[in-house]
Amino acid sequence: MAADTFAPDVNGAARFAERLAAGLVERGHNVHVVAPASSRRHGTWTETHEGQRMTAHRLYSWRWFPHDWLRFALPWRVRKHAARILDAVKPDVVHSQSFLVIGRAMTIEAERRGIRVVATNHLMPENLLEFTMLPGFIQEPAVRTMWNDARKILSKASAVTTPTRRAADFLERATGRSDVHAISCGIDASRYSPVFEPRTENRIAFVGRITGEKQIDVLIKAFARLDAGLDAQLEILGDGDQKKNLESLAQQLGVADRVTFTGYVTDDQLKAAYSRATVLAMPSIAELQSIVTMEAMATALPIVAANAMALPHLVHNGENGYLFTPGDDRELALRLTDVLTADEDRLSAMKRASLRMIKPHDIQNTLSTFESLYRGEAVTDPVTEVTDLSDDKRRGR
């Protein structure tokens, strides 16, 4: 598995790769992960992720200083390392998680050796711009260059996947491929505990990296618009380069005493936060799936999300929550109010809808589908879009 970001990194791509690798080990596969070293220490050793032991090849890495934690392997050295690792391990398949540095090198070297490549894309190059320090007039040509390189690298893969059909359609348009599979990142819903007890407070949660693409400023502005009588609290879980700016925004809007920035949290702290929340707010415009949203749904939370990228795949307006126009803090405030003022019957109906809609995203379906792709078998993309009406709608609620 070739990954440009992997645990202990905290982001959707890293979490997916970690869960996939652990699930494959649990099924009896011998998994090697090639990823940047998370510190100056580099080399090959055994790591434990999600309770499963796997071999990690940690490449010498540098910190990318425009980003608050990202490290990268040196591009001019990665091909050499990829060749060395492939010759030593002799894998049956390489699963690339990125068309950038490590994924790119492993794909090229695997093709040269006749090793099957499966590629999963989690990335929109446009989302990298804020960390490149490129002047505005260069950004558009830079994005075109990255997509052209993506087209070249992904053409070497026997199979290409991305988490949702909407993301797959976007990737096909961007790369010229017509066979991109939509395969959910998957989630083990049994690890989350649905909560149906009557709420005792109005608590809004956001979980994710504190970066510009997440549009957390829109959420804070919407929160400031809420009726003071709701006595709502906003909990922002995660860390990132925009934290200080957003703390200042909350202060300027007069809501700092009701907005909590937790910073990085452990898995147990995250589950506790889901359990005490009334609703998850996801204003991001760049989600190719949103594992956070899936985790919240597995905890039986209603979701209020931007009507952008893959979020409409998970959030059905009026069923398990509401969608709002991206960037519209006024509309977001109205949709949050709809959830916070819902009676217990309506709130329970949204909770049940979230649980019903997360079932097709079971991680075991994801693992089985990737196993088939690794073997070169034809697959039918798992159906994850729940289209039938809920029991509550059929009963006229």
TrEMBL record:
InterPro entries associated with the record: Glyco_trans_1, Glyco_trans_4-like_N, Glycosyltransferase_grp1
SUPFAM superfamilies documented for this protein: UDP-Glycosyltransferase/glycogen phosphorylase (SSF53756)
Annotated ranges, domain Glycosyl transferase family: 198-352
Gene3D superfamilies: Glycogen Phosphorylase B (3.40.50.2000)
Domain of life (superkingdom): Bacteria
Domain Glycosyltransferase subfamily 4-like N-terminal stretches: 10-191
Keyword Aminoacyl-tRNA synthetase tagged: no
Record keywords: Glycosyltransferase, Transferase
Coiled-coil segments on the chain, per record: none
Keyword Transmembrane: no
Pfam families xref list: Glyco_transf_4, Glycos_transf_1
PANTHER family: SULFOQUINOVOSYL TRANSFERASE SQD2 (PTHR45947)
Protein name in the entry: D-inositol 3-phosphate glycosyltransferase
Species assigned in the record: Paramicrobacterium chengjingii
